[in-house]
Each structure stands twice: as C-alpha cells, then as structure tokens.
Write a structure and sequence with these properties.
Length: 480
C-alpha cells in the first residue's frame, strides 16, 4: 500500500511512501495529511465472511492491507492482541441496543484511559515500538493536550525504551481526573509538563519544536495526534465491527459521531469507501459548530473557541477535515493546498454547490448547546437507563434530530466513560459516576510533573537535557 499527501503535487512530485514512513512522520512535509493512494476494497462476500469474528481477528483482516509487509503476519497479530488485551472486555467495543428504538450505543471507552482514543493509541504505541526496535532507533513524541489525548498517548508508550514522550498541558486548565491520568504515570520515559499558559500556547510550543527542522531531526520527533493516519486505520475497524453485528453487508447501517477533529467520523467514511454499506453519518458538534455550519452552507469560517461540557470537541479547525476536502477537490492536491493556504489567512473556505450536494447525501451535522447537552444525558437515562457523558450526549441529541430512516439501525459512538466527566453528569442526573475499580485509587496515587514557562527555548533545553541524561548512563552497566 502506498500513501500520498492531501497536498501532493503542491511542491513538486514526491515519491509515494509506505506505511512505516507515514506512521513515523505523522504530518507530511508539505503540510498535508497522509492517506492511502487507493482504498483497499472488500466485496460483499468478503464482508459476509467476517461475520462472527472476534474483535482482534477482524482488526487483523481490516488493517492488513494498510500495513502491507511492514510487519510479518505473526508480529502484526501479536501487536493487535496485546493492544486489545489492555481493554476491560474482550469485545473491545460492545454494541448495546437502546430498547426497541433502533438506536444503539457502541462503547469505545473500555481502554486504559476511558476514552475512545485508546482504541487507536494502544495499537499505535506498539507499532511504533516494534518498528523502532527493529531499526535500532529512538523517537521522541512531543504533543499538546487539553485532556484525553495526553493520557491515552502516555498510557500507550509508557516504559518503552525506544520512545520518550513530552506532553504539554495548560497548568490548572485540565480536570483533576485528566491531569492525574497523566501525572501518575511515573515511567522514566514519560515527561509531563504543566505550561503556564493556555492550550493554544501548548500547541504553539509543540508546533515550534516540529518547525525547527534541526531539532526535529536531532530527536526524531513524532506526532501521535489524530492526524497520524495509523490512528484513522485502527478506528476503521470498529465501524465494520458494529455494522456486521447489525446486519451488514445485507443491510445498511447509520452512524452518529460526536466530532472535534473529524478523525473518528473520517474513519467511518473510510470504511464506507472500502465497501461497508453505511447509508448515513450524523456529526454532532457542541457550541463550537464549525462543522455544522459547513454542512449547512458549504462555507467553513473560523470563530472563537468557547469552553463547553465536552472539552475534547472544543476545537476551531478540524484538522482531519482536510482528508474529506481532498475528495471534494477531486483529489487534486495542488488546488487543495492553495485553498488551505487561503483558509489559514482569511479564515474562510467555500466548496462548490455540486460538492456540497454530494457530501450532504451522506452527512448531516447538527449542534447542541450546553443546556441541550445536560438534557440529553438526563433523557437517555430516563428513557433507556443508560448514563452517558457529555460528548456522547451531543451525538445522542443530534442523532434523533437527523434520523432519516427508522428501519436502518443507528449506532451512536460513546466516546468516553461517564466517570471521566463526573461534574457534568452529576449536574444532569444528580448522581456522580464512579471510576472503574482499576482506576479507583487514582486520586491517591503519587504525581510527577514539571512546570514550564511559556517559552520555546526553555522547552527545547528541557528536551535536550533529558535526552542527554538518558544517553549517558548514570551508573556503569553491570554484566551478569
Ligand atoms: C477526542 C474526543 C472526541 C473527538 O474526536 P475527533 O476524532 O477529534 O473527532 C470526542 N469525544 C471524546 C471523549 C474525545 O476524547
């Protein structure tokens, strides 16, 4: 399988890359996002033959064409098995019907950090470690987080000798559960950094590290945020998983996805491109509704970010949306590169009427405000006895507004465990959800975190120092 950038052709003709290269690079050098030159295809017969498979076997069959010969078959199977053994349930992503409504919840929060990001990151961490071990190399992950991404990435690479991770978060602006999920990981390769600044400051610091090419190459910087195609790949699997349970390939299925960076729903779109009969996607946004406005008007215009009960969707520019735009621009990388450059400077991007009509056949999008989010949590509990958290609730509310055909099952993605957002849940239903037993002592565990002023030179110095310390062993190695 070969990969191209969404902006390919904008800076000469680069040669297509393999899976290892795009996994290690994350973002393309031309500023675009990687995707496969062609989607692997699964026929109706092939999809039918996957019915009844366990999650890990299904994952192997769906992802195998993407990784090609990066891993031999036995190694790839082992990495998948280990990744999903870290989940509470062998089902990995249980699909629960809500009464006889035709609505279903797919629970994606049974991984180590209680959010759907574990599904992809548990595998990506292992794939990176395997590749680096074989190559005899070391990589450094630098990332910024406003909450869920940080803990999922840290949990995915803790204790790996091939990887160091530096995670920046805004001091005092992440929830206590979210902070502790990062800072209580005391592994020597994990570096938590509380920055005196906002999430945007953290993101700017991380970006500045990548933009310093000498620094980037010196530490082999890697990005594991949702632009990394390996994450999209791992997320495609659970769309097949749910659809197969609900009648695919004979019957179509619809999905509702609460969206921030468009990474999760883009994986569903990829599943459809690969042959899965998905009739309809509903995208849920909170008050930060750039995607809802786009699907209404065909124009994307940035505004200020406002904080909501669903902080992981408090996003202004959905980075993965560029992958869908690539198709709307007829896969013309040079034209898209121009459009994205104009978007960065003017804050506006408009697609043609035909392109808009085309995507609207497949996608609906809607927004839910703060009272609507709490009302949805209460409604789901009252009608179906299920407690959902605010991100899931946004999808739940929008799904009911945009259901097209009641005879088609609608799967709503439950992206986090309710105990991750206890304040909002308690406000909505008067009951405080409890952390699962394996995280029950989180509030008593020791923390380790470094403070940092909002200063790029101070950050680079810290990374240089830590890596130099690791390279020079403090004590002589003893041979046994
Ligand atoms: C990250 C996240 C989202 C948004 O996912 P995208 O892939 O960015 O669209 C939704 N819900 C939760 C709980 C998240 O952590």
């Amino acid at each position: 399988m070969q990969y191209i950038s969404t902006r390919h052709g904008s800076q000469g003709q680069p040669s297509p890359l393999g899976f290892e290269d795009i996994m290690l690079a994350g973002l393309a050098r031309d500023g675009g996002l990687y995707l496969p030159a062609e989607w692997p295809q699964f026929s109706k017969t092939e999809i039918a033959s996957m019915k009844g498979l366990g999650y890990t076997e299904l994952a192997f069959r769906i992802m195998r064409p993407f990784v090609g010969d990066t891993f031999d078959e036995a190694t790839f199977r082992r990495l998948i098995a280990e990744a999903y053994a870290s989940f509470e349930t062998p089902e990995v992503a249980p699909v629960k019907p809500l009464g006889a409504s035709g609505l279903h919840l797919m629970e994606l929060f049974h991984g180590p950090t209680l959010a759907f990001k574990d599904v992809a990151l548990q595998l990506l961490g292992r794939m990176l470690d395997q590749t680096l071990t074989v190559r005899g190399q070391h990589a450094t992950i630098v990332g910024a987080t406003s909450g869920d991404t940080g803990s999922a990435a840290i949990e995915a690479v803790r204790d790996r000798k091939t990887i160091d991770i530096f995670m920046l978060f805004p001091k005092g602006r992440v929830s206590e559960v979210q902070r502790r999920q990062m800072t209580t990981v005391l592994a020597p390769n994990v570096h938590n950094i509380a920055v005196q600044g906002t999430f945007d400051d953290c993101q700017d610091l991380a970006k500045a590290c990548f933009n310093d090419l000498a620094f980037r190459d010196r530490h082999a910087l890697t990005a594991v945020n949702s632009i990394n195609f390996a994450r999209v790949m791992a997320q495609i699997v659970y769309y097949f998983w749910a659809a197969l349970k609900l009648g695919a390939p004979e019957r179509p299925v619809a999905f509702t996805v609460p969206s921030g960076n468009f990474g999760n729903v883009y994986a569903g779109y990829a599943a459809k491109r690969m042959g899965l009969p998905i009739s309809h996607f509903v995208i849920g946004t909170n008050s930060n509704d750039i995607l809802a406005r786009f699907f209404e008007s065909g124009t994307m215009t940035t505004t200020e970010v406002v904080p909501t009960y669903s902080p992981s969707m408090d996003i202004q520019i959905s980075s993965n949306f560029e992958r869908l735009l690539f198709d709307l621009y007829d896969r013309n990388g040079a034209t898209l590169a121009d459009a994205m450059t104009a978007f960065r400077s003017t804050g506006t991007l408009k697609v043609g009427a035909n392109a808009l009509a085309g995507v609207r056949e497949l996608f609906d999008a809607g927004r839910v405000d703060e009272p609507g989010t709490l009302a949805a949590i209460a409604d789901c509990r009252k009608r179906f006895g299920e407690t959902i958290e605010p991100h899931t609730a946004v999808g739940y509310a929008v799904a009911q507004q945009h259901r097209r055909d009641p005879s088609v099952p609608m799967v709503m993605l439950a992206t986090a465990h309710p105990a991750k957002f206890p304040d909002a849940v308690e406000k909505a239903v008067g009951v405080r959800p409890k952390l699962p037993a394996r995280l029950g002592d989180l509030m008593d565990r020791a923390e380790r975190v470094d403070g940092l002023r909002n200063d790029i030179e101070a950050l680079k110095e810290m990374i240089d120092d830590r890596r130099a310390m690791a390279a020079a062993p403090a004590r002589p190695k003893v041979r046994t």
